[in-house]
Amino acid sequence: xxxxxxxxxxxxxxxxxxxxxxxxxxxxxxxxxxxxxxxxxxxxxxxxxxxxxxxxxxxxxxxxxxxxxxxxxxxxxxxxxxxxxxxxxxxxxxxxxxxxxxxxxxxxxxxxxxxxxxxxxxxxxxxxxxxxxxxxxxxxxxxxxxxxxxxxxxxxxxxxxxxxxxxxxxxxxxxxxxxxxxxxxxxxxxxxxxxxxxxxxxxxxxxxxxxxxxxxxxxxxxxxxxxxxxxxxxxxxxxxxxxxxxxxxxxxxxxxxxxxxxxxxxxxxxxxxxxxxxxxxxxxxxxxxxxxxxxxxxxxxxxxxxxxxxxxxxxxxxxxxxxxxxxxxxxxxxxxxxxxxxxxxxxxxxxxxxxxxxxxxxxxxxxxxxxxxxxxxxxxxxxxxxxxxxxxxxxxxxxxxxxxxxxxxxxxxxxxxxxxxxxxxxxxxxxxxxxxxxxxxxxxxxxxxxxxxxxxxxxxxxxxxxxxxxxxxxxxxxxxxxxxxxxxxxxxxxxxxxxxxxxxxxxxxxxxxxxxxxxxxxxxxxxxxxxxxxxxxxxxxxxxxxxxxxxxxxxxxxxxxxxxxxxxxxxxxxxxxxxxxxxxxxxxxxxxxxxxxxxxxxxxxxxxxxxxxxxxxxxxxxxxxxxxxxxxxxxxxxxxxxxxxxxxxxxxxxxxxxxxxxxxxxxxxxxxxxxxxxxxxxxx
Length: 684
Fold this sequence. Notes:
- By secondary structure, the chain is an alpha/beta fold.
- The protein contains 18 helices and 23 strands.
- The strands form 5 sheets. An 8-stranded mixed sheet has the order 4-14-16-15-17-20-18-19. A 7-stranded mixed sheet has the order 8-7-13-9-10-11-12.
- Helix 6 links the parallel strand 15 (285-289) and strand 16 (331-336).
- The longest helix has 23 residues, at 299-321.
- The model is unreliable at 1-24 (pLDDT under 50).
């Protein structure tokens, strides 16, 4: 038995062995009793039990197993006492558009096996099973279609160059390729007539890339191609054996049997709430988001995020029901969609919901244990969307960092947040700048401009492979991610004028760190670019303070904070230039018809529309800056096209965010967007 007593100078833990003093550290933003209640109620073990259940489903969009997983989530949500539990259905038929997302048709698989066979005494004999959907669903590439094929295996190299096929008997046979099936499809199947493919595509590059030769990578075919084919995925170790045999002149015959295909279906989106208690604020919502779809097992990506927000909902609902913490003023909503495309469908189809959302806590990969080599991130939104909510999440993350480090080094901490079945390592969460890659980029897109806290692991050496399994998930990590997310979301749901001073102190602490980072980065830049970076850093801090207007009425606290920023700018030698009343220059405005990023999931709006206007090769998409690449630049350029900023101003913001970039590349990309009707020119 243990009891915690808090006095003003220290924290004391009473154990069976006596009194142990623990260095005091006051939790940020929330009352101590609320933090203690969250820390004691949240369970990393329960989150992992739920994760283990989800990992049994092959959760492809629109599939029967996705629906089963969604129904399981809905049932657990009801059992946990969450309100308004529902599964929303949005057509996924290949033709419906949700903003810039063309709805991919649903895809399901019933059976798939790949055997090596040989002829013995005039009959075909199965020698070895190389792949089985029932045993390991990841061995069948997504969007494969039904087929019954017996054919020779042909080594087609990488599979993406014509030279890979020169002089080889590809037609009617099965190509062994190193590339993803979708990348090899055009040449292997459409050009040279292969009946199907076997791919040994490697995993995403990181420090451990290529070390584990037994990883089977998740494969994809094009969701919209009229070409019906199939692809199986094998490990690099298996592929090496097959290639060596072919190189020695052996004849390898494969028997492929696939029952799968695309058809009109639905995106299923599970949602539930903890209703707000304040009559004037309950229509405002704080959303806990994840993505439910993935291959089996898909444990860290992303059963971990789904199980963790389910545990957050259970714990908060129980604590509120028992009167241990006050109910939220704003409504807390929990959402389990297919990744990106489900969020695109939800926000586009339900604009009334989108208008109510004040902030999002998004969890995508939050449980990777030591074997995954994962680093946990608390990621901010883009420079185009300043918000104090990122500082709120960082404050709770730093609190967990300190408490978990103290516990790891001394064995004592007021809030170690350690699961009994989990590890005891310090969290060491990295406070990270914005990066693309999950549903947070949909919310943060200027179509909705909803700020999102993004909790995520990277790198993860097992992402998108058969090794992304529950045994590599740490319940302690799930507990700590759940605490950071629950504390951040619950605080934002209760945020009122009385909290503003504390929030601004947190923001001020982060400001000093951010400006120091900007100063350091500027030292490696030419003088003009260094000045721009520091200008943008100060402007960001001004806009970040103003972001409190999303939650609170104006106050003197904010005026004081802005005055402090002015003094800090003067101290740093940064003079904010006032924008003239009459702005000269080229200005673009985003059109409202097409909401969402250009590059979404399984569909690229820009790529699909650029050919008709002959604008398919803007240099910005290939540009590599110091701190980001072309896709990141393009995402932000569109976000910043608001009808007020000149192209020069847009260029200066993205130059500060991702590194100096030629103005002409920004102009060229905006003109390409204009040509396909995404933006319109306001002034030349």
